[in-house]
Amino acid sequence: SSHAESRITRLAVGEGPQYLPFVERSHQIWRDLEQRSGEVLLYQPGGYTICQARPAHLDRWGDFVTRTEQVAHDASLQFDRRTAAEFAEHLPQVTLGLDEVLGFEPTGGIVLCERAIALQLDLARSAGATVLTNTTVDAVEQDPTSVLVTAGGEVFRSDRAIVATGAWFGELAPEGDVRHTTVTRQVVYWFEVEDPDRYRADRFPFLIWAGDRAEDYLGVFPMVPGGVPGLKVLGEQFTETTDPRSVERTVSEEEIASFHRNFVAPRLDGVTPTCVRSEVCLYTNTSDDHFLIDVDPTTERVLHVSACSGHGFKHSGALGEAMVQMMIDGRSDLDLRPFSRSRFDAGV
Fold first, then answer.
1. Cα(229)–Cα(276) distance, integer angstroms
2. pLDDT higher than threshold 70 for residue 57
3. What is the pLDDT of residues 257-300, one digit of tens each?
4. CA atoms of 313 and 331, how far apart (whole Å)
5. Residues 218-256: pLDDT tens digits?
6. Is 33 within 8 Å of 115 (Cβ atoms)?
């Protein structure tokens, strides 16, 4: 998923140390794009990771603060454990729950995903690329010498192709890969705030509230100057699967009211029940929640990519670079092997 204005970015990725080099390189790419365009893409006010001190359920997040801290320690990154009193002094507008622990990454922040993509497309066009939008890809096939992509009633022939289709992964990927993926419906909300200065992107850090269970998760994003006039918040659910062609894309009034009542009102001061915008997002996850990036089992001319929405965008600049290197040179500066399908074949 690459919409909804902004994405959290953090170097200390508690999901695993294999992701850190991709975030680090992506930050360099965002800064390079900023210099080339004069636009701001990356805000780094820091970010908090919060979880239960003694999580009762380890099904998804577990002790996510300790996991994040370990990744940071092994990479010599700054990640500061903070007390509830220190947190309250820093963010008096936010209320912690009972028996919670937290850590702060000073280099964390948000990247403006929609602005970044628009800029990347403009630069691609200026470099000679042809960009087709609102064009359905119907098939990706191979003959002995090339890849044939059928899209918008035309057939495009190429030496190689990267197929990165997000929630539509199952329509073009190998069947063996599809078995390891699911698509779930997620909802993003922007609520009106009484004093926007308290939540501005240059001073308010992101919050990742891991929660005791997956459905207790809360993500809070700082407000972007000139962006949506509301505080972006979201939860997560991985129980009910869906399909991109049939997913319910309307967010109901009850969903909005329930989320504010259960997640926002108890924790965020000055955030009103008025929802100024809401969107449905689709997460595409593998069975182990790690990325799936590998060549087609029948040919090395096609690379299939499931960037696992939910924490994919912050890696996307470096992932794109590495995947192009792999297809052109047969190797990449950053290691893509941890994301291969071999881990499923081996029963990992």
1. 7
2. no
3. 999 999 999 999 999 999 999 999 999 999 999 999 999 999 99
4. 22
5. 999 999 999 999 999 999 999 999 999 999 999 999 999
6. no
Cα gap 51→217, rounded to integer Å? 9
Is 65 in contact with 79 (CB distance < 8 Å)?
no
Residue type at 134? Answer: N
Per the confidence metrics, is the pTM higher than 0.85? yes
Asked whether the beta carbons of 38 and 196 are under 8 A apart, the reply is no
